Amino acid sequence: MRLFLLCFTLVCVKDTEAQIKHHDIKVIACSDTDKEYVLGIDKEEVYYADFVKQLIVKALPPFADTLNPPETAYQSAGAEIDICKTNLGVYRTEFKDTPTPQDVPQNSIYPRVDVNLGSKNTLICHSTRFFPPTIRITWTKNGVDVTDESSLSQYYPNEDNTYNQFSHLPFTPKEGDVYTCTVQHEALQTPDTRTWEVDVDLPSVGPAVFCGVGLAVGLLGVATGTFFLVKGNQCN
């Protein structure tokens, strides 16, 4: 049995002038193989610790990035993980016979924006409602593994204590290309693969043709009516 230790700190801050509540959250998680440290606000990641590159990564885009992590943020994250690892050893002894709950991930694949052939876009593979919070997402393009070209977000808690995670794959749509994302999780008996195919509908000429024909017939009718009206007046 693999044991995960998860610690949450949730703080509610109220803006008295605007009467708006903001929820800050800090996630500290560790297991034998994984560790995570994330700070967020209102369900959005603000920054997280990258323990491979040994630095703090800002998660918000530049136009929304108004919060700067302190200079000691990475050292603080490392200290929090050390405490988590120590507590993990204690809990492993205390709860060695307790089964780990498992929730099967719900997965989907979709483009970030409307697809136009030849225009750069991003495919998103979203996995949610899973527990424990360890998951693997891989990508293929036309049967060839392209996982190295993708990026993976930190996993983030849902309100029901399960987790969600995003994987992003940049791509340029080309007619007929087929992409897949495959999710592996210990609650799944077999990997779950989702498929997305580039299939862009080209503009149809039918409506334009029918509109043109209708306009021509209409103008012909007007011209004919005008002719008979003039002839009738001449006869009178």
* Helix/sheet category: alpha+beta
Radius of gyration using CA atoms only: 29 Å
Low-confidence stretches: 222-233
Beta-strand residue fraction: 35-45%
| Overall morphology | globular
| CATH fold-type name of one domain | Immunoglobulin-like
Largest sheet: 5 strands, antiparallel
| Name given to the CATH homologous superfamily of one domain | Immunoglobulins
At CATH level 2, the architecture of one domain is Sandwich
What's the tally of helices? 2
Strand order of the largest sheet: 1-2-3-4-5
Terminus-to-terminus distance = 104 Å
Can you describe what's shown?
- The chain is an alpha+beta fold and 236 residues long.
- Among the domains are: 72 residues, Class II Histocompatibility Antigen, M Beta Chain, Chain B, domain 1 (Roll), CATH 3.10.320.10; 93 residues, Immunoglobulins (Immunoglobulin-like), CATH 2.60.40.
- Helix content is 22%, strand content 38%.
- Strand 11 and strand 12 form a beta hairpin.
- The termini are far apart.
- About 5% of the residues have low confidence.
Defining key terms:
236 residues; alpha+beta; Class II Histocompatibility Antigen, M Beta Chain, Chain B, domain 1; Immunoglobulin-like; five-stranded antiparallel beta sheet; 2 helices; 14 strands
Sequence-ordered SSE layout with sheet pairings:
Layout: E1 5-15, E2 20-30, E3 35-41, E4 44-50, E5 55-58, H1 73-94, E6 106-111, E7 121-130, E8 136-141, E9 144-145, E10 151-152, E11 156-157, E12 163-171, E13 178-184, E14 192-197, H2 206-235
Antiparallel strand pairs: 1-2, 2-3, 3-4, 4-5, 6-7, 7-12, 8-9, 8-13, 10-12, 11-12, 13-14
